[in-house]
Amino acid sequence: MPSYPALGVVFDVNVYLDALLLKGNKFPELVKVPPKTGMAPIDCLSLAFDADRFSLHISPHIIENIADVLHKVGLSAKVIGNSLQALVEIVQISGGQVVAPPRLAFDSKDFEDNLVLDLLKYTDSKVLVTSDKGLLALNPWNHRLILSPVEFLEHIL
User: Fold this and answer.
1) What is the overall mean pLDDT for the chain?
2) With pLDDT > 70 as the criterion, what percentage of the chain qualifies?
3) Mean pLDDT across 5-24
4) How many CB atoms sit inside 10 A of residue 24's CB?
5) What is the per-residue pLDDT across 30-62, written as a single tens digit (0 to 9) for each?
6) In what order do the strands lie in the sheet with 127-129?
7) Cα–Cα nearest to 145, from 7, 31, 3, 4
8) Are 38 and 156 in contact (CB under 8 A)?
9) What pLDDT is recorded for position 99?
10) Reported pTM
11) What sections of 22-110 are H helices per DSSP?
């Protein structure tokens, strides 16, 4: 069977937050591949354990935004720290990395969206997973797919 390089993937802030904050999840306990929770953001994150299929990349910008929202919803500093550590470990398990990309993208009217596109382009990732309607409207972008969590699962599984 031929071996293919892992597909580079970026998850937008909203995918991580949905996975962390959905009722009924047990993060950081994630179902291993294949995911079967029926909650697309959690199942997307579970797929990151399959490092042979794709590598997940994240930026300090995304991590900081996750931390800010988790703080605003009232989680303790300890829970936030543990959650962020778990996310970074998932990225590393996938064969991806934490990257602070240079400014490369200016195609969105939303400055924050451009920072996510910077990561996508700099890591040469081929897929962005997001629930952001503005980003989804750019699909395809620079020969890269921008998919919702449900669409991503349909493509990967």
Assistant:
1) 87
2) 85
3) 87
4) 8
5) 555 556 667 788 778 877 766 567 899 999 999
6) 54-57, 7-11, 127-129, 145-147
7) 7
8) no
9) 96
10) 0.89
11) 40-47, 60-72, 77-93
Rounded to 5 degrees, φ, ψ at 118 are: -55, -45
The Cα 112–Cα 105 span in angstroms is 11
Task: Give percent of the chain with pLDDT exceeding 90.
Answer: 60
Identify the helix (H) or strand (E) that includes residue 11.
strand 7-11
Spatial distance between the Cα atoms of 117 and 106, rounded to a whole number of angstroms: 8
* Amino acid, res. 77: A
H-helix or E-strand spanning residue 151: helix 149-156
Token look-up 């994150």 returns 45
Question: How many CB atoms sit inside 10 A of residue 131's CB?
Answer: 17
Residues 11, 60, 23, CA angle at the centre, nearest 5°? 50
Distance of CA 72 to the CA centre of its chain: 20
